[in-house]
UniProtKB/TrEMBL annotation:
CDD domains: SCP-x_thiolase. InterPro entries: Thiolase, Thiolase-like, Thiolase_C_2. It comes from the Bacteria. This is Acetyl-CoA acetyltransferase. It comes from Streptomyces mirabilis.
Length: 388
């Protein structure tokens, strides 16, 4: 096979125990997810020569690889927040295609919820006060306030309403109701969202992602390995990545996320259009993230996200099923959730999603999916287009 020309497939995916996990360390969740993904693929650990991880250890990913008993010859520890895993998937795909690795394991695990409950940490109000961030911290600009301010700008510019933003949370919960692994499954209404306690105007509690424990793993391999794997391959068709800003003053337009660039690149490289996508898994730390990412990926025009989401399009049975597992708003959100997006996209394309399985015209399984992660306060984005 000519270097740089090999096709790359996702051959194994898994979640660790998720939700409320009080009796495991983050390392244990990494290991549990990794073992399950290898078992899913039917691939022996000895074949894994590439490893990608971020967010744990003094020397990530060295410590985690050691814990898992791996000695990789290709590594990635890119850390760009929630989009980390889509960016890592892009890097791993390029490495495998070029012949620098044969099988790359992406793993994440966090006990974000359990640590707070046990008093081992506090909630992150900001990312710190060093470097460029020092110029914003004195004004009390918390992490959630940055998302809230961006949402308000979209509302001011395009007339997006609170009810439209709330409908994103309502539809995410409707999808979670079909997912036995989701942390919250009880249906909610628009009034439930609007009447909740205010967190950062305009976001009430249900506009915001939950905090959970959990881990995930995704195994990518060169096409030569596919025939020996237990599962049907899901191919990586195209990827894109982009970084935008870290200080709000350097963000040119609060209504445009970096997915506008990463998505365009991913679709161009995959040779597909947004209107061909069957299912979308999008980072949703807040309802506004879903809405603006839909616009920037090209599923609707800029400023039309409010009207697009309010008609039930995002549910499993909708026109464009989004966050079919319930997303970070209802299923699980243990921190950098981007890897969970890839797991759910693969499960949907394989037809393994159970009651929440998306079916297209004639009862056929979805053929194309997109996973788009966002990091920081719209600071970075990674987008991956996948197909059967």
């Amino acid at each position: 096979m000519t270097p740089g020309k090999r096709k790359v497939a996702v051959v194994g995916v898994s979640l660790s125990d998720c939700g409320r996990v009080d009796d495991a360390t983050p390392y244990a969740l990494h290991a549990q997810a990794a073992r399950r993904a290898l078992a899913d693929a039917g691939m022996d650990r000895s074949l894994v020569d590439g490893f990608a991880s971020a967010g744990l250890g003094t020397l990530p990913p060295v410590e985690v690889a050691e814990y898992l008993g791996l000695r990789p010859t290709w590594v990635d520890s890119t850390a760009v927040g929630g989009s980390t895993w889509e960016v890592m998937a892009a890097h791993a795909t390029d490495a495998i295609a070029a012949g620098h690795a044969e099988a790359v394991l992406l793993v994440y695990g966090s006990t974000a919820r359990a640590d707070i409950k046990a008093g081992r940490r506090t909630g992150n109000l900001s990312f710190g006060a060093r470097g460029p961030l020092q110029f914003e911290v004195p004004y009390g600009h918390t992490l959630i306030a940055k998302y809230a301010m961006a949402a308000r700008r979209h509302m001011h510019t395009y007339g997006t309403t609170l009810e439209q933003l709330a409908s994103v949370a309502v539809q995410a919960r409707a999808n979670a109701a079909l997912n036995p692994e989701a942390m919250f499954r009880t249906p909610i209404t628009t009034d439930d969202v609007l009447s909740g306690p205010m967190i950062a105007d305009p976001f009430t509690k249900l506009h915001c992602c939950l905090r959970s424990d959990g881990g995930a793993a995704v195994l990518l391999a060169a096409e030569e390995y596919v025939r020996d794997c237990r599962t049907a391959p899901v191919w990586i068709l195209g990827t894109g990545e982009h970084v935008s800003h870290t200080t709000m003053s350097e963000w040119p337009d609060f209504t445009v996320s970096p997915a506008a660039v990463s998505g365009r690149l991913a679709f161009e490289r995959a040779g597909v259009r947004p209107d061909e996508i069957d299912v979308a898994e999008l980072y949703d730390a807040f309802t506004y993230m879903t809405l603006v990412t839909l616009e920037d990926l090209g599923f609707c025009a800029k400023g039309e996200g409010g009207q697009f989401v309010e008609k039930g399009r995002l549910t499993v049975g909708g026109e464009l099923p989004v966050n079919t597992d319930g997303g970070g708003l209802s299923a699980q959100h243990p921190g950098m959730r981007g890897l969970f997006l890839l797991v759910e996209a693969v499960r949907q394309l394989r037809g393994e999603a159970g009651e929440r399985q998306v079916k297209r015209t004639g009862g056929r399984l979805p053929e194309l999916a997109v996973a788009s992660g966002t990091g920081g306060w719209f600071c970075s984005s990674g987008t991956v287009v996948l197909g059967r």
